[in-house]
Every structure is written in C-alpha cells, then in structure tokens.
Amino acid sequence: MKIKESNFVSNILNGLSIGIVITLIPSAILGSLMRIFGNDPAALAITQMTSVSQSLLAVVSAYAIAHFFKFSSIDSGSLMLAAFAGSGAYTFSKGTVILSGPGDIINIGLTIALSSLLIFLLKDRLGQLKVIFSPILVLSLGGGIGRLIFLSFIRSLLRSAA
C-alpha cells in the first residue's frame, strides 16, 4: 500500500486525536462528576476505571491509526505493543509495573510513526514468518527506539523548556 506523506501525517494525527477523545475525555468529565459522590464505592470504581483508561492512550491511538492504514491484525497488534512500550505510561519499581498516566503524547506520535514506517517496510518481506517476527521487530525496534531514545529526548526537551 503506497501512501502520500500528507496522508501519513494525517492518519497519525487523526489517530492520536481519536485516542485522546476516547481515553482522556471520559476521565476528565467523569472524574469531576464523581467527586460529588465522595467516597461512594461505585463512584470510586468509576474514577479508578477512567484513571486506568488514560494509560491506554497509546494503545487506542495505535488501534485507530492501524485502522486508517488498513493494517492486518498482526500489524495492528504489533503497532499497539510498540506504542505502549514507547509511551512512557508505565514505570518499573521493585519488580512492579506502575501505570503513570497517559504517557507523553509527542512521544506516542513519534513511536507510532516510526513503527508504522517499519510495518510498511516489512510488509511483504517476512512471508509466513510474519506472525512470529513482525511483533518482535516492531516492538523491539519501534517501541525500543521510542522508549530508549525518543522518550529521553522529549522529556529532556520538556524539562529545559519549563
């Protein structure tokens, strides 16, 4: 599938927008409304659900972008894994994974763009082994570069701008 640069960028931005609306808006609206109910167990459960859903911004955005690019299920899943890996939405502490909000939106976009390009590059090169190697390559290369290089760079830029 050939795609123009303008369509590529539009798909990335549109997918990020959809991810923001789906994962962040419910938390903003319901989080404020649930404060009215104080410590009611149902209100606390809704607040917790919407809070956790924020951490899935990268995954939902990647899903929307994969849909726009008409990726296969394998490619879509690989893109979602890479996006979450590079998002910065989690940290590790003493062997425990800690969800820490939605992650960095700029980094999510860069990681998804790189991983999408990698998927396009690998499209017809893996043959029957695509099921095994596509997730490995997209997660480790796209997600790895997103997490290890982009995330550090973007965070240092944001710190210096503040």
TrEMBL record:
<feature type="transmembrane region" description="Helical">
    <location>
        <begin position="12"/>
        <end position="37"/>
    </location>
</feature>
<feature type="transmembrane region" description="Helical">
    <location>
        <begin position="43"/>
        <end position="66"/>
    </location>
</feature>
<dbReference type="InterPro" id="IPR003352">
    <property type="entry name" value="PTS_EIIC"/>
</dbReference>
<keyword id="KW-0813">Transport</keyword>
<feature type="domain" description="Phosphotransferase system EIIC">
    <location>
        <begin position="11"/>
        <end position="150"/>
    </location>
</feature>
<keyword id="KW-1003">Cell membrane</keyword>
<feature type="transmembrane region" description="Helical">
    <location>
        <begin position="78"/>
        <end position="99"/>
    </location>
</feature>
<keyword id="KW-0472">Membrane</keyword>
<keyword id="KW-1133">Transmembrane helix</keyword>
<feature type="transmembrane region" description="Helical">
    <location>
        <begin position="131"/>
        <end position="154"/>
    </location>
</feature>
<keyword id="KW-0762">Sugar transport</keyword>
<feature type="transmembrane region" description="Helical">
    <location>
        <begin position="105"/>
        <end position="122"/>
    </location>
</feature>
<keyword id="KW-0812">Transmembrane</keyword>
<dbReference type="Pfam" id="PF13303">
    <property type="entry name" value="PTS_EIIC_2"/>
</dbReference>
<protein>
    <recommendedName>
        <fullName>Phosphotransferase system EIIC domain-containing protein</fullName>
    </recommendedName>
</protein>
